Amino acid sequence: MATHKLGGLFPKALLVLSIVSIVPIFIIGYHVLSINTRMLNNERLERQQTVAGRLASILRNNVTRKAQLFSIFTDLHSDLGGHRFIDQADIDYLRRRNPDITHISVLNNNGQQLFYSSDEKSRFSYANDLDNILTTCVINGQDYVGSVSRADGALYSLMAFPVRDNLDQKPVSGILVVELDLKELGESLQAAYPADLQALVFASDGTIISYSGAEQGLALTAQPQKKEESLYIERQLGARRAGEVTLEDRTKWLVASSEVALTHWTVYVLQPAQRPLALLFGGTVSSVVDLLVIVFGMIVFIVIVSYWVIIPITRPLGRLQAAAARLREGSDYLIKREDLEIPQNEIGDLATVFLDMATALRQRKEEILKAQQALTQMNRTLEKRVEERTRELKETTRELVKTERLAAIGQMASIISHEIRNPLAVISNAARLIKMIVSPKEPKLLKQFGIIDVEIKQASSIINEVLGYARSRDLILTAIDLNSYLKEIILSFPLNCGIELKEDFAPESVRVKVDAEEMKQAIRNLIANAAEAMQDHGTITVGTRIGKKVVCIFVADTGPGIKEDVRGKIFSPFFTTKARGTGLGLAVVGKAVARHKGKIFIQSQVGKGTCFQLYLKIYKKPGDTSYGEAS
Fold this sequence. Notes:
The chain is elongated and about 155 Å long. Helix 1 runs antiparallel to helix 4 (183-192) and helix 1 (9-80) runs antiparallel to helix 7. By secondary structure, it is an alpha+beta fold. It has 13 helices and 17 strands.
């Protein structure tokens, strides 16, 4: 039997059939389990409701029995007491006969205490319930079962009953107020709590009265966590008497409730909710075995069907794939009909089409190879001719442009040098001679001579800039220590007193290989340009930053900056924004950097200043033992 790759058609088809067959079984099984779970939960809720009703009945009987005792006492006293109103002896007798009474008081119908009988340890106070007592007993003429309080490790309930002079009298003459210890009630609840369920009893104000496992059956201490749980359950149940709730810790519980009408106390009976998966894993062993047998039988059936249906498809496709792979690996391989399995179906049609296509492709490939060889030979010939013509054209164009530019600039420089420099020298000598003859007492003449000297120097500077840009000579490269070289330039540069020149060199100096005079002129031009831009006040900073293979020389000023539309033109010859100037200062800088195969960048912000950055290759770093650009 042929082997199959994990990513092949057969494993994929087997996986799909398995999913299509087995997944519905699990879905249906889970659905059935969910239905069984709901039915089981409903049965459990019915039992919980029965338990909650029984606990509520215990509470109701206990409270009703106590209330009836005091109600009958007040009624019998009204007709058979032998005196008009309850006195101290009556309440002392009543407390002696009922040990559950920890405090008993008699109030008038205005709420003032007339007399009382109390346990020595009692800390009884009815001040918080007085308004409700007066409303219920005096105005409505009904018995009052009030709040539950906790003190000294015990739980107490407050009750009040109207007192009349006789039964036929509707107006209330006074009020009998009783505080009862709920110890007897706790014992009854403790005996009634089921072992497999949890129960909670709490008053209308949220006070926990009792819960499963409580000492003496009562919540003798505050239980904030259980109180929070009861409030959480109350919010989720709402008007329902029973249902499933989710507590704050995400656990799900089945809850049934019952209310004691007389006291408005509520009983909750809880147990964990049954989930479908828990029901599955908690079932009998035979159910799990049956499920495994069904799944195993389904898998065997799927494998048999897969081999019967899919193998006749995958085997011809596998032979076809192998032939295609051999065709891809060997360009000279010729597919034959015997190499393929061609059944009488769509797979066979595909194999026939593939065989015809492979034959046609082989013929086309041979034709293409012949044409390609001829085309390759032609392309090589054409490329050689184009390269030769392009090289010749570039050389001719470069030489032509260079010749024309140098010829024009050289001619202009020669004319300026010959026609202007000699007259300027004559004018300068004549002015100096006249200045020596003129008396020092002529300040106006001396001022004019000063102007003549400044203008002659300006004209000489222009001639020097033009000649410096036009002069074309070979570079005289020398290795120099960059920081020392820049410090010498700064020290020898004359500046007005309003301009401060700062140094910001990298801690370690490097050596660069440059034409010292040409690069010196470029840096001096940048400093002079910065000084002119700041108009005799500001700061110029000259410094260096060292990279891995290049060093940056920067000249920064605090001048007005350069506008965006001007930056692209400042290195062009004869372009200037000054009233007086040749526009060759920065052109000389650009030419010097280009001749040294460096780069120049500008960072400028209008109103804040400009920084020119010159990048040159490092010739030698400190500690290097070899020289040259490769280091």
